[in-house]
């Protein structure tokens, strides 16, 4: 008969000496595996006399229990030690300062889009969008450009290949098709601004084939040119962050508005630099007017019931004016040195409470 006391000492000594999880597993196999010493003792109990079993049974079961408890405890201990070692090795010092230099910058055009939208949102406008690839109906016909009318040529349109039915898709030449899409899908009162990219086949110091506009549309009973002028003056005052701003509406022509006007702001060109707000000169900054009855009709509205006004302006121009950017083309060269100079901090959102820029 095995000396149970000696076996107990031996197994516990083995367990004491085991210093990693594999060694502990080996002790477990030595004791409790199929051919383990404790398993053999348990098997041997079958051949014992009842008296022997009464004496040795509790001892053998006691050993089985105590050694398996000890093994489990040691495994837990080792697992915890492994985890602690790993936590120590993978430690991150969250109190370290963040990297000093932020690389990314917000492009001035995106900054100005944000600023303009913030101002109009504050006046109760919501944002509308339309596709860059348009059809003739939304870009021209519904906006009261009759087929073959010379006004279409003024837009230097980029056309796609003719389709089988003879129609051609195009890159929108202005954001005004979003007026049409909004009137067709929404019921008055309507108050939207539509920012986006626009395209014309034109390129020189003040024109790029792709540029940005924001469109405004209000359809509400009883609105008139006075409201239009008020909204635009409020916008210009907020955008240029000037209390006193002098503007004038100059008669103009657009097929989709009647009457139509361009709005100029007072500026000063003396001394080479352009200054907005005071001076003897005027600078044109946007087109606007009352929505033409034919446009209302094309969008399923009755001009005797609904009136509205619309305006559209070039975002790139506004960005150049506000931030003193001399050449339009530099905006699109993706030169990081330029962006570093003219770009904006990414984490600072323009808002009316703390200032727009
Ligand atoms: N769509 C015109 C343009 O691109 C601007 C405009 C919009 C004028 C709305 C009047 C009303 O020049």
Automatic annotation (TrEMBL):
KW Oxidoreductase (keyword) present? no
Enzyme Commission designation: 6.1.1.20
Q: Which GO terms describe its molecular function?
A: ligase activity
Q: Which residues bind Mg(2+)?
A: 258
Please list the residue ranges annotated as the Aminoacyl-transfer RNA synthetases class-II family profile domain.
112-346
Keywords, A to Z? Aminoacyl-tRNA synthetase, ATP-binding, Cytoplasm, Ligase, Magnesium, Metal-binding, Nucleotide-binding, Protein biosynthesis
* Domain of life from the UniProt record: Bacteria
Q: Which cofactor does it need?
A: Mg(2+)
Q: Which InterPro entries match?
A: aa-tRNA-synth_II (IPR006195), aa-tRNA-synth_II/BPL/LPL (IPR045864), Phe-tRNA-synth_IIc_asu (IPR004529), Phe-tRNA_ligase_II_N (IPR004188), Phe_tRNA_ligase_alpha1_bac (IPR022911), Phenylalanyl-tRNA_Synthase (IPR002319), tRNA-bd_arm (IPR010978)
- SUPFAM superfamilies registered for this protein in UniProt: Class II aaRS and biotin synthetases, tRNA-binding arm
Catalytic activity, as annotated: tRNA(Phe) + L-phenylalanine + ATP = L-phenylalanyl-tRNA(Phe) + AMP + diphosphate + H(+)
Localization (cell): Cytoplasm
Keyword set includes Ligase: yes
| The record's free-text note on cofactor binding | Binds 2 magnesium ions per tetramer.
Stated family: Belongs to the class-II aminoacyl-tRNA synthetase family. Phe-tRNA synthetase alpha subunit type 1 subfamily.
Q: How does it assemble?
A: Tetramer of two alpha and two beta subunits.
Q: What is this protein called?
A: Phenylalanine--tRNA ligase alpha subunit
Native organism: Candidatus Phycosocius spiralis
Lineage of origin: Bacteria, Pseudomonadati, Pseudomonadota, Alphaproteobacteria, Caulobacterales
